[in-house]
Amino acid sequence: MRAIRRTKTVEGTSIPGIIHNGGSYFYINVDVYEDGMVNCWELTDLKGLSGKINSGWLTPAVPSGKQLSIHGLGAYTVESAKWTYNAASYYQHIQETVSLLNPDHTNIYEISDREQEQSEARRIALSPSSTEFYVNSEMFYQTTEGKSVHLFMKNSGAVYLVDVVIYKDGKVAVYNLPAEAEYTLEELDALFADKTFFTTMDTPVKVQILHLGEVTLGESLYSADAEEKLKELHNLHKQLNGEQTAHEACRAAYYAYLENPGDYYREQLRIKYELVPEHERMYLGDMDTKDWDYQRILYHPEQTREV
User: Fold this and answer.
1) Tens of pLDDT, residues 174-216
2) Single pTM value for the model
3) In whole angstroms, what is the distance from residue 300 CA to residue 52 CA?
4) Contacts of 164 by beta carbon, 8 Å cutoff, 6+ apart
5) Cβ atoms within 10 A of the Cβ of 115, count?
6) Any residues with CB less than 8 A from the CB of 35 and at least 6 apart, and which?
7) 8 Å CB contact between 273 and 294
8) Which helix (H) or strand (E) segment is 144 a member of?
């Protein structure tokens, strides 16, 4: 039988959530779609979501004394917290989010037994990447895509854990605030310079996680440098516009050095390497090599490369 397939666009929104895996806690964006599907490191329907919440895989709280990891931002000890939901009310919160997206509850999707059996047989765990966008014109429903990072933000005398989205046209939107904020790409530098956006904590800080609660986070166990996060945002804007990213330029300089090892090409590699956000340099290689060979060339050129 000839095989074909199609791609369907399903819109939704993201809400804060926490994955509890292997004794560790990870802050995530829980992607909730208008067809009732929810992505919490695995795409599931509302029935399956209930099981994930009841099992503790997806949770709205972190016990005091435990570490909370935030992708691309850092890891912080939860000293104390006032959480908004328990397991039951968090599930209801997600159901209500689906209702806001789809008031008539039309075309709500349920994973069939056959689909479940096929996924298990094929060892497939679907976790699709969501595409962030805003509608720039209702005429022909024209949209502009964006990409986001997590940051801490000072706002109206409080500190929030926010998502900062940079869009292709240079618009910058900040979500998970009581009222969403908008800036331009040109304004970002000043917002980082005056520490409106920040990443590290030297003393315990009360942080508002919208719809989850108020959390007192202790000193950073590790964290990305704020200036490196600013680099990341500018780099994401380049990526959205099809320009060469810092990662691509660095890889090109790496291969140029391998073809022509010498001081000139090593210096060019160093310049390009330092333009890559520090917390993302591990992605220059594969999962095993990371950026180790880049470091060998730059900092230990006397060592030979194993091939």
Assistant:
1) 999 999 999 999 999 999 999 999 999 888 999 999 999 999 9
2) 0.91
3) 47
4) 148, 149, 150, 151, 153, 172, 173, 174, 197, 233
5) 13
6) 10, 102, 107, 108, 109
7) yes
8) strand 142-155
